[in-house]
Amino acid sequence: MTPASDPVTATSLPIGSDADLAWVRHQVRRFAAELGFGLVQQTKLVTAASELARNTLIHGGGGEALITPVTDAPARGLRLSFSDTGPGIRDVELATTDGYTTGGGLGLGLSGARRLVDEFTIDTTPGEGTVVTLVAWVTGVPAARPGSG
Amino acid sequence: MTFPTPFPGSLAAVPVLVLGDTLLVSLQGELHDGVAEQLQQDIAHRVAHSEATGVVIDVSGVDIVDSFLGRVIAEIAANARLLAARTVLCGMGPAVAITLAELGLTLPGVVTALDVDRAFELLRQDASTAAPGEAAGCT
Amino acid sequence: MTEWCRSWRDGLFQWEMMRVSEQATAESVARELGAFLERRREQIAQRWADAPLFRTVFTVSRDEAVEAGKAVVDALADVASTGRLENVAAPGFDSAREQLGRMAASRARSGYSPAQIADEAADLRTATADLLHGEAQDPSGDETRDVLLALTVLMGTLRLVIMETTIGAGEELIARQRQQLLEVATPVISLWEGIVAVPMIGTLDSARSQMVMESLLEAIVEQRARYAILDITGVPTVDSLVAQHLMKTVAAARLMGAECVVSGIRPAIAQTIVHLGIDLGSVVTRGSLADALAYALTRQGIEVSRRAAGVNPR
User: Fold this and answer.
1) Does residue A149 carry a pLDDT above 50?
2) How many CB atoms lie within 10 A of CB C161?
């Protein structure tokens, strides 16, 4: 079943400056908290967003972030999309090599960010632009029904 | 070099406190990329032109540490070391620590401590034992 | 246009009209069913209150059972008015899902399976059908038969909704228990001032690893620990994935100023690690928890010595 997204509460944010990065982090945090993500998950999500938003700004020449709550009943989640019309990524394989680096790592930070979320896709065309999409689902214990368990 | 104008309510720069021969840097909340680089330069300048032999970076007030901030911290420590000063990173919370570990950003060249008290304790110990190359808490 | 074309076109047109009129009939039947449900909600709810599903759940007050019944009838009437009687996801059911979920959970606790609970819902259909039959002007006529059929479809959908909510409740219970199990299996023990230990038991998968990290790091904050002993005596095998989980935990603890010691490395495990070429970096390892504790104590400048013979304990 394809997850349903809620176009009404989806939010688009411009990424054109350092200040925009801070705002993206702030908004992602807000959405994540509202959806019920735990603190560790929130931190991972905001950190991943920070990495990708910075990529969009620095490597993509600016672009936009799209924040969309999604559901795949009963699961709730958040989809983040970072798009730009920049040079694109020439070697996606290399950029997302899943190696456990210790402090170094490529400047793109993609392989790391991927480990912080549940779903991660890159859509890129050299010379045209890039869209990186990630989805995180709220994990953790659902509240007990009244009077049960 | 110009820096972006901060939005209302944010600090233009990060305050650096001088406590004896140690510089205490308490990072708070949002840290704009431009401000972070300015901080790096500020610390290097102070270490080079003062009696400071230690730098404590307290991140207890920071919500997230991403690869950029991680690199800034690593570079502050590297710069300090070149200028014969020691750096201790402290105040990291469980959520941020887990995220960094997952990211693979382990900051191997940076000495760490639980909080500011421990950080100062560490700097005092190391100063008195003066054992080069050995650093408690560092692998 | 040729004669042949014209009759073909007319035939298509007629078929379309027939489809449309069939649909219109189905919709009007559904609406009639909805009207019946609204008209007779009190009587239906009264009958349902005596059915096993309601009676065994609302043991204290029959009025409560009737109220609950009315809520469900309202939901059914709402769904009937949309004309799509077989739609399990119909928003009309939403208002009743909470109610049905509670009832199903209650029956489940009494040991009934989702299928059994769904069968109890079948009783509700019979009671409703009887009422419908009773008030029909032409009990054996086509119209009555159509509405009864519609009722059967709608009640069938209700059965599915009940089964869904029961299974959902079961899944929630399992998820909660799994979480509780994880928490129980990863206690963090304070061995000495500034030294904590985590006995890791069972396979170290991603979920458990997360749990260990969170519990351990919180304990490091609470106990202001400088040393954390990760005892893997209870971990059956160490492959590169398990090693990765361990290394992440070590890295996270270090970022918080605590040094990890991995203890409980059995000879077989040591061989596996070497054989697989796993690099544990500079992590200190010890064969036993006792040795790991000794290491941590020594690092803190604490010496443990035997009391001179003949001196009595305090």
Assistant:
1) no
2) 26
**Domain boundaries, position C224:** 189-299
Cα–Cα distance between C273 and C267 in angstroms, integer? 10
Distance from C-alpha of B23 to C-alpha of B46, rounded to nearest angstrom: 9
Per-residue CA distances from B33 to A82, A135, B90 (Å): 19, 25, 20
Within-domain flag for C113: yes
pLDDT surpasses 90 at C10: no
Position C270 in a domain: yes
Q: Are residues C154 and C217 in the same domain?
A: no
Residue C150 lies in a domain: yes
By a Cβ cutoff of 8 Å, what residues of chain B touch chain A? Answer: 4, 6-7, 30, 32-34, 63-68, 70, 74, 94-96, 98-99, 102-109
**Same domain (yes/no): C278, C234:** yes
Tell me which fold the domain B16-129 belongs to. Transcription Regulator spoIIAA (3.30.750)
Pair (C137, C201) in one structural domain: no
Instruction: Please answer yes or no on whether B137 and C226 come within 8 Å at the CB atom.
Output: yes
Are C56 and C165 within one domain? yes
Is the same domain home to C113 and C210?
no
Domain end residue (candidates: C156, C181, C206): C181
Confidence of residue A81 (pLDDT cuts 50, 70, 90): very high
Q: Residue C166 belongs to a domain with what CATH number?
A: 1.10.490
Cβ contact, residue pair A19, B7, below 8 Å: yes
B106 touches chain C (CB under 8 A): yes
> To the nearest whole angstrom, how far is the Cα of B20 from the nearest Cα of chain A?
31
User: What does pTM read for this prediction?
Assistant: 0.70
The answer for A 83-142 residues in CB contact with B (under 8 A) is 100-103, 105, 109, 111-113, 115-116
Hey, are the CB atoms on A149 and C210 less than 8 Å from each other?
no
Using a CB–CB cutoff of 8 Å, tell me whether A145 touches chain C: yes
Q: Do C102 and A146 count as a contact with CB atoms less than 8 A apart?
A: yes
> Min CA distance, C286 vs chain B (Å)?
16
User: Chain B residue closest to A53 (CA)?
Assistant: B66
Secondary structure percentages of chain C, helix, strand, coil, to 5: 65, 10, 25
Task: Give the CATH number of domain A16-137.
Answer: 3.30.565.10
Residue with tokens 């100062």: B120
Q: What is the pLDDT of residue A8?
A: 57
Is the model's pLDDT at B53 over the cut of 70?
yes
| pLDDT, tens only, C24-51 | 678 888 888 999 999 999 999 999 998 8
C156 and C199 in a single domain? The answer is no
pLDDT category of residue C94 using cuts at 50, 70 and 90 = confident
Nearest residue on chain B to C225, alpha-carbon basis: B114
Residues C232 and C249: their CA atoms lie apart, in Å, by 13
CA trace torsion A113, A117, A122, A128 (10° rounding):
-60
User: Is C304 part of any domain?
Assistant: no
Whether residues B103 and A116 touch (CB distance < 8 A) is answered with: yes
Task: State how many domains chain C has.
Answer: 2
User: For chain B, how far is it from start to end, CA to CA, in angstroms?
Assistant: 37
Contact by Cβ (8 Å): B16, B43: yes
